[in-house]
Amino acid sequence: MQKPPDHAYPTHWEADVVLRDGGTARIRPITPDDAERLVSFYEQVSDESKYYRFFAPYPRLSDRDVHRFTHHDYVDRVGLAATVGGEFIATVRYDRINDQGLPAKSPEDDQAEVAFLVQDAHQGRGVASALLEHVAAVARERGIRRFAAEVLPANTKMIKVFTDAGYTQKRTFEDGVVRLEFDLEPTEQSMAVMRSREQRAEARSVQRLLAPGSVAVIGTGRAPGGIGRTALRHILDAGFTGRLHAVNHAFPDDLRRLDPEGVPAVRALREIPDPVDLAVIAVPAERVPEVIRDCGEHRVQGVLILSSGYAEAGPEGRERQRAVLHQARSYGMRLIGPNAFGLINTSADVRLNASLAPQMPGAGHIGLFTQSGAIGIALLSGLHARGPGDGGIAGISAFVSAGNRADVSGNDLLQYWYEDPDTDVVILYLETIGNPRKFARLARRTAAVKPVVVARGARHNGTAPPGHAVPTVRVPDSTVAALMRQAGVIRVDTVTELIDAGLLLASQPLPAGPRIAILGNSESLALLAYDACLTERLRPLRPRVLASAATPDDFRAALDETLASDGCDAVIVTAIPWVGEEDGASPGASEGTALAAALRTAAAAHPEKPVTVVHLAMDALAETLAAPPPLPDPVPPAADRPAPPTAAEPDPPATAAPTSPTTSAPAPPPRPPYPPARPPFPPGPPPGSRPALRTPPVPTTEAAAPPRRRSAPLRIPAYPAAERAVRALAEAVRYAAWRREAADPGRVPEYDDIQEAAAGADIERLLDRLAADVPSGRSVRVPDDDATALLARYGIHTRPVLPAPDPDAAVRAAERLGYPVALKTTAPHLRHRADLGGVRLDIAGERELRRTYAELTDFLGSPEELRPVVQSMVPRGVDTVIRAAIDPAAGAVLSFGLAGAPSQLLGDVAHRLIPATDREVAEQIRSIRAAPLLFGWRGSQPVDTAALAELLLRVSRLVDDHPEVVGVELEPVVVAPRGLSVLDAAVRLARPPATTDLGPRRLPAY
After folding, report:
1. CB neighbours of 496 closer than 8 A, spacing ≥ 6?
2. Paired residues of 401 in beta bridges
3. Tens digit of each residue's pLDDT (9 = 90 or more) over 725-772
C-alpha cells in the first residue's frame, strides 16, 4: 500500500476485535487528543505493572512523557490503543531503531523496539495478543521487518505474549533483562496461532449470547401483546433457567412485578442490582441509542435488537444501523440484529427462547442460522412437522435469525458450532456473504468435523436484501457455489432440501460409497428411487421388491440381510400400506408403528450404514421413525424376573411393536458417528464476576475421543417422495467423499526455477511506473512485453508475437519466426475470435501471407484498427483458457476451462481457491463437462494434462506469492499430446488493500 504523508491519521488501522473472553475492544492509533485518556489510563495501572513497563518505580507520567506517547509520525513512531467505552485499556508503541539500538536516521533501518502496557483489570483477556497482531501489521506496512523487546524476567505474562505469537524468535539474557527479537514475516505457525485465537474469541462471544445467566427484555409492554411482551412470554414459556427482568421506562413507579408473568419489573436497567448478560431490545429505533448506552454502562455482555427501522428502511436507516453498531462495540458488546427474529438455545441448562417463535423447538443436534425471519419461521415449522419434541429427529441445538446481521453473522456461528459438542450438523440460510473469503476458510474447517448445509437466497447481482449493508461481491454465483463445494459445504437450493439433507445427516452415519440398495413392497416406488439414484450419479443396485403383503418381519429380515452385504453402502426402504391375507387391511397407525420397530431393529444391528425410508400414505411410519425412541422397560427385581427360556421355550420375537412414542418419556437423541471436534473454548471470567454461563459439561483434554456410535433403537429419516430421499442421500455421499479426500488435500509444489524475489522487484517497479496516479483499489494492465517477462519469472513462457503494421512488416516477422505462421488481430473486439475471421492459421509462405493480410484488412478494417501480429504455429492440441483473479471479498480464485464456446457460451469453467494444491488442480481439470476432450474422446489422442496441471499450479503460486497481481489471463493455452503453448497472456496489477482476511483479526465494518 502507498505510504500516506507523515502525520496523516491512518484510518485503516482502526479495527474492532473480539477478545479472549468474548467481549470486544476497539484498536486505533493514538492521537494528541488522547492526552487526558492516557493519563487516566496510567493512573489505573498498578505499581507492579508500571515497574514491569519502565524497569523502575514510575508513579506518574510527566508532561514530556504524555507528549511523547501521544505524538507520532505514524511511520517511525507509532502508538496504538485498545479502548472500551471510549477509554484506554491497553497501549502499544514502537520506535524504529538502527542496529545499535539507537533512534533510526535512515528509512533503510528495518527494526523497531516495541513495548506494551495493559490495565490490570483487563489482563488475561488477550488484549496484548490482539495489539501485537495489529502493531506487527502496521510495522510491516511501514517497512519494519523485525521487533525487539526488553522484558524483566518476572514479567512472565508479557514474555508469554511474545513467545506464543508464533514468529521466528531469538532470545537472550543480559544485565538482568530478557531481550526478545523476532521477525514479523508471517509464518505458518503465527497464522495458525492467530486463527486459533480468533476462533476461540468469536466462539466465546457467541456462547455469551446463547447461554446467558440473566436476561432483560427492554421495551416490555404494559399490556399483553407487542414485540417486547411477546418475547418475554416466549422466554418464560420455554422454561429459561436464568433470571429474567422486564424493563420499560413507562412502568408505574410502584410496579415491582409484571403480572400475570410474575417477572421482576423495573423502569431502567440501572435499577437491576445484578449483572445482565443479554439485553433483548424491543423499543422504537430512535430510542435504541439511549438503551445501548444504558446497557454499556451496566456492562451488559450482548444485545439482541428486535426493533426494525434500520438499513432495510433506506439510507437514513443504514446510517442509524452503523451508528448503533459502533456504539455497541464501543462498550465491548456483540449485537444480533437489528430487525432480528431472535435466538433459541434448547440446552437443558439454558432453555432460552428469546425469539418471536411461539413454540420452543425440540432439543437435538442441528445448529440453525438464518438471515431471514420468514425463512427462520419456515425452517422451524418444517423441522417441527418432521420430528416434534425433545430428542426427535428434527431437534435443534441452537437457532439464530440475525435480521440485518450488522454484527453477529453466519461466520460467528460457524466459529461457535465448530467446537460445540451439542451440534452435529450446521444448517445456514444466507442471503448475502459479507466476507466469502473468511466464510470459505471457516466452512472448510467446520466441514472437516461436521456437515455444513447451505442454501443461498438472493444469489444474483442486485438482489441482496436492502437491510444487508455488505461489500459488493463481483464473482458470480456459480463461482461462489464452486468455492463452497471445494470447502466441503453441502449446497442446496431450497428450504425443503435444507431440511431433508439436515435430517439425514443428523441421524445417519456417512455412507462409505455410492452403492445404494433399494428394497420395499412397491415395485413402482422402487423404480422411482432407482431412476433418481441414476440422476444423482449414484450407483443403485437392482431393487429388491417384496410382496405387497410383506409383514414387518419380512422388512426386518430383508433389511438385515441387505445391510449385512458388502456390496452396498446405504439402503433406501420403500413402503406402502400392505394388505394381509388373513386379516384384511391393517390399521394405519399400528402397521406404521410395527414397521418402524422392525426397521429400527435391523438398522441397529448395522450402525455403520445409513438407512432412509420412502413412504406413501404411511404418516404413522414417518412419525414413529422421527420421534424419540421409547425408553426400555424397567428391569424387575431379581426375585420377580422370569426364568430364562429353556430349550423348549424359544426367545420371543425381536420385532414386537414398541409402545407409542407419544406416551413415553423422551430419551436423549442418538448421535451420528462423526469424528468429534476439538474441545470447546476455555471458560470465561472467574466465578463471582457475574452468573456462570449455563453450558453443558465439555471435555477438558485435547485428545480426540473415538467416534460415537448410534444406539438402538435409532431414528431413521422418512421422506414422502423418492426424489427427496435420494437427493439428500446423494449429498451425504458427496460430502463423505470430500471428507475422505480432505484427509489428504495434496501439496503446493515448489519449483526450483521460480524467481520470487526478482518478480517482486519487477512488480514494485511496474507499479511505480504505471500506477503512480491511479486511485487506490484500481488495477492497471501490464504492457505485453513486461507481462511476458514477469510470467517468465515463474516459468510461464508465452510464444513470441511480432507486430505487423503493414504487409512488409508481416513478411519480415514471419521470416524471423519461421514458417508456417499465424496472422492474428489484437483489436479488443476481435481478440481470440477465429469465428469472425480475426485469426488465420498455417500460412506457409510469403505470397500466402501477403494475400491473407490483404483479405484481413479488406474485410475487417485498417491495420491501425486491427493491430495485426504474426506468431509461429504450435503443435495441434486442445485450446484451453486459464484465469486467476482476486476479488476483494472472495479472495484469489483460479479458473480453468476450454477456450471458446464451452467456457464462454456454456459456462463450463471450474474454479478453485488459491493457493491450489496438486490434488485440487488435477480434480479441477477433470471436473469440467468437456474434460473428455482432454483424455482421448472418441479415439482422439490424449493431451498432456500433467503439463497443464503444472501451468495451473505456477499461476496459482504467482498470485499467492504476490497480492499485487490481481489478474492473470492465459488464452489460448494449446495443450498438445506432448507439452503446451501459451499463445497470449495478460496481467493486471494493483496496490494491495490495507486489510485483508490474511491480516490481523478484526470484525467487519459495513
Report:
1. 382, 724
2. 342, 370
3. 999 999 999 999 999 988 888 899 999 999 998 999 999 899 989 988
Which pTM value belongs to this model? Answer: 0.83
Residues 6+ apart with CB under 8 A from 186: 998
Q: Could you tell me which of 515, 478, 509, 434 has the C-alpha nearest to residue 739?
A: 509
Question: Is the CB of residue 502 less than 8 Å from the CB of residue 399?
Answer: no
Q: Which three cell numbers stand for residue 729?
A: 442421500
Helix residue ranges per DSSP H, 611-755: 619-626, 722-742
Give the closest residue to 968 by CA, choosing from 831, 790, 775, 808: 790
What region does 608 belong to: left with phi over 0, alpha with psi -120 to 50, or beta?
A: alpha
Cell digits of residue 226: 407487542
366 close to 425: Cβ distance less than 8 angstroms: yes
Q: Is 170 helix (H, G, I), strand (E, B) or coil?
A: strand
Asked if residue 563 lies in contact with residue 543, where contact means CB atoms within 8 angstroms, the answer is no
Helix axes 156-163, 127-141, angle to 10 degrees: 50
Burial 891-925 (b: 16+ CB within 10 A, else e): bbbbbbbbbbebbeeeebbbbbbbbbbbebbbbbb
Whole-angstrom distance, CA of residue 426 vs CA of residue 956: 31
Q: Would you list the DSSP string of 402-417?
A: -TT-SS--HHHHHHHH
Q: Which candidate, 95, 80, 94, 96, places its Cα nearest to that of 38?
A: 80
Would you call 108 exposed, middle or buried from its count of C-beta atoms within 10 A (0-12, 13-18, 19+)? exposed
Name residues whose C-beta falls within 8 Å of residue 735's C-beta, 6 or more positions apart in sequence.
Answer: 447, 451, 488, 490, 505, 510
Interhelix angle 436-447/410-419, rounded to 10 degrees, is: 20
Specify the pairing of strand 334-336 against strand 570-575: unpaired
C-alpha cell, 245: 427482568
223 burial class (0-12, 13-18, 19+ CB within 10 angstroms)? Answer: exposed
Do residues 141 and 96 lie in contact, with contact meaning Cβ atoms separated by under 8 Å?
no
Least confident range from 306-320, 334-348, 600-614, 770-784: namely 770-784
Q: How confident is the model at residue 406 (pLDDT cuts 50, 70, 90)?
A: very high
Give percent of the chain above pLDDT 70: 86
Give the separation between CA 701 and CA 944, rounded to whole angstroms.
50
Q: What is the DSSP string of 280-315?
A: EE-S-GGGHHHHHHHHHHTT-SEEEE----SGGG-H
Residues 163 and 149: their CA atoms lie apart, in Å, by 11
Three cell numbers written together for 241: 433457567
Q: Are strands 15-18 and 24-29 parallel, antiparallel or unpaired?
A: antiparallel
Is residue 463's pLDDT more than 50?
Answer: yes
Report DSSP state, residue 669: P
> Which amino acid makes up residue 412?
D
Instruction: Compute the distance between CA of residue 485 and CA of residue 593 in angstroms, rounded to an integer.
Output: 39
Write the secondary structure of 525-551 as one string of H (helix), E (strand) and C (coil): HHHHHHHHHHHCCCEECCCEECCCCCC
Residue 477 has pLDDT above 80, yes or no: no
- Per residue in 185-230, pLDDT (tens digit) is 888 898 899 999 999 999 999 999 999 999 999 999 988 889 999 9
Look up cell 464451452; give the residue: 902
Nearest to 532 by CA among 572, 570, 476: 572
Task: Establish how many alpha carbons lie within 13 A of residue 648's alpha carbon, considering only the half-sphere containing its beta carbon.
Answer: 0
675-687 pLDDT, tens digit per residue, is 333 333 333 334 3
Q: What is the DSSP string of 235-252?
A: HHHTT--SEEEEE-TTS-
